Amino acid sequence: MTRSEPDSCPGVLRLHEAADGPLARIRVPGGRLNPEQLQTLAEAARDLGDGRIELTSRGNVQLRRMRDAAALEQRLTAAGLLPSATHERVRNIIASPLSGRVGGIADVHGLVPPLDAGLRGAPRLADLPGRVLFTLDDGRGDVSGLGGDIGVHGVDGEVFALLLGGADSGLRVPADAAVQLMLTAAHEFLDLREGRWRVHEIEDGPRRLADRLLLAHPGLDTTATRVETTAPQDIPIGWLTQGDDLVTLGAGVRLGSLEARVAEFVAAIERPIYLTPWRSLIITDLEEWAAEQVVRVLAPLGLIFDANSPWLQVSACAGQPGCAKSLTDVRADLAEAVETARVLPPSTPAFPRDSLLPEEVVASGRQHWSGCSRHCGRPRGPVTDVTATPTGYRIDPPES
What we know:
Layout: E1 16-18, E2 21-26, E3 32-33, H1 35-48, E4 52-55, E5 61-63, H2 69-78, E6 93-95, H3 112-121, E7 134-137, E8 150-154, E9 159-164, E10 167-174, H4 178-192, H5 205-216, E11 221-222, E12 238-241, E13 247-252, E14 257-259, H6 260-267, E15 273-275, E16 280-286, H7 288-298, E17 314-316, H8 330-339, E18 355-356, E19 367-370, E20 384-389, E21 392-396
Parallel strand pairs: 6-7, 7-8, 17-19, 19-20
Antiparallel strand pairs: 1-2, 2-5, 3-15, 4-5, 4-14, 8-9, 9-10, 10-11, 12-13, 13-16, 15-16, 18-21, 20-21
Helix pairs in contact: 1-2, 1-6, 3-4, 4-5
């Protein structure tokens, strides 16, 4: 069956008309921002929007209630955040945030610029759906389980596994040929897609795509030993010592909503920043004394450096007033639940499925709150769903 509806993924040049006003989505390949770019985003959120930067599950950002689309385009272009008008919505690239600094088999951050340039340099790839996701995993398994369409996963320092539709294809590629093979896979996907948005939506899509790549590159190595791709349960938070003895700080952001004022403080640190697919920040290359000062300043402003914080166990859709389909202000209800200690740690005994009022909600483990049954923004892996209904909230524990 061929899909006929247009690709409605928002960008900068085509805003989404949300219930609370125009929404812009800005692609940040590999999640990497320099301080000047983060400052630009903070100023745009404050001057043109609602004063917040929303972090997405693809390491991108959204700005809500945009009042001047032309001014936003001008600012982002000047900051290098909008290098292509034709390809802006296809630059969805997630890379292992700690790669090259803490752990991992291969440094994948060096693959981001050529992959991004290759996407932008091929006119035909502008036709990729805005939902297509590229993943670069350095072997630790942190992003391969996020359901990407085309990805690579380090198996040693010189060889990558090719992932298609979120699973290992069995194809192996040398590190210096990985980007080109991913770009070839993107072209082949366009030949196969027949109106579908994602590789896994094509009937037997990953296998058919792998077969086409083998025909185009008969010298590719193959293996029967497959890389397991599961969603990570822990995200990097707090003090992390780099291989060069400098410090990386992992900072959680409540519900992925970063106040512009706090973002300006982060930009003022003048170190590379990575946005993660877990809606958190990675602040890198700090001296120990500087890292201590950063925590002292930013923790009182709301950034989370405690891996045991209950805020790291919860996520939510936009809810009201941003979404017209939502039955309630989900984020306000969730904040009340967290602040009154009604979101309990994973050791809490199981609870029955029921329809409950927000003040009665008690849940265990990771949970995602949704304003309707669509469950937008739900993370992958075992998650308790807390779903708004006309009479309250329904709680659905993870399927066993």
